[in-house]
Amino acid sequence: MGIGHLRYPTAGTSANAEAQPFYANSPYGLVFSHNGNLINAQELKRFLDYEAHRHINTESDSELMLNVFANELNETGKARVNDKDIVDALARMYDKCFGAWACTAMIAGFGIIGFRDAFGIRPLVLGTRPSDDGEGYDYMMASESVALKQLGFKEFRDVLPGQAIIIQKGMPPKTYQVRDQKCYCPDAFEYIYFARPDSIMDGISVNQSRENLGYKLGEKIKKTLTPEEIKSIDVIIPIPETSNTSAPCVAAKLKRKYYHGFVKTR
């Protein structure tokens, strides 16, 4: 079992102390990775300080979320938790935290869980593959399907808004609806910028979505500019790398030349 985190911080600082996953020793030993942002961080800080009496080490909203979850798990008063305890703790955490999240967490000696906010703002996908020893299956959760494909996972499905996946050691995944889906509001920037073009998120091809955006942008330009103004456009140049997919579609719609004018330094 294991979890990891690759994205830069979106709250707090870029200090090493804020590198994820975060760890909380009590209760049970929790490791926590969070993709998203919380919009009520100050209220959560006050709750953790004055009511839960849990110490926070960083300015990261992810550490706040971990400690809210840890506090709710601690309310069980048990030496060991089960699926129901975890789902109930998540439900109480959902009631306290406001914002966007796709999270994975590991509970020492128990297993791994993944969960997504009730609006579906951040993506989360679950993959399955046969184990190398031929006995049973391996399971993995990630923000993008491409991460699963590269590791040989061929079967995958999206974790739906408000859902949690619990994978207990040696057991297949179980799905729980922590909170009803409030709506489907994926962050458009996941499709425009963050994701790799060969990913599929919530059943939508990132590559196709960027092509569609290019055609839409071309249509808008045609409605905004006169034919003479469009003819004055020398070339359509993408800014690497995410617009590499959209720019040719803009060029095709406007019937203008397409060239690469910028190269990304690696």
Compressed to H and E, one letter per element, the order equals EEHHHEEEEHEEEHEEHHEHE
* Mean pLDDT over the full residue set: 93
Shape: elongated
Biggest sheet strand order reads 1-2-3-4-8-9
3D structure, described in words:
The chain has 266 residues and is an alpha+beta fold. It is built from eight helices and 13 strands. The strands form four sheets. A six-stranded antiparallel β-sheet has the order 1-2-3-4-8-9. The protein has a three-stranded antiparallel β-sheet with strand order 6-5-7. A hairpin with a 5-residue loop joins strand 8 and strand 9. The longest helix is centred in the C-terminal third of the chain and has 19 residues. The chain is elongated, with a radius of gyration of 22 Å. The two termini are 32 Å apart. The model has no long low-confidence stretch (mean pLDDT 93).
Give the secondary structure arrangement, pairings included.
Elements: E1 22-24, E2 30-38, H1 41-52, H2 61-74, H3 83-96, E3 99-107, E4 111-116, E5 125-130, E6 137-142, H4 145-149, E7 155-158, E8 163-168, E9 174-177, H5 188-194, E10 200-201, E11 204-205, H6 206-224, H7 227-231, E12 235-236, H8 243-254, E13 257-258
Parallel strand pairs: 12-13
Antiparallel strand pairs: 1-2, 2-3, 3-4, 4-8, 5-6, 5-7, 8-9, 10-11
Helix pairs in contact: 1-2, 2-3, 6-8
Provide a concise account of the structure shown.
The chain contains eight helices and 13 strands. It has 266 residues and is an alpha+beta fold.
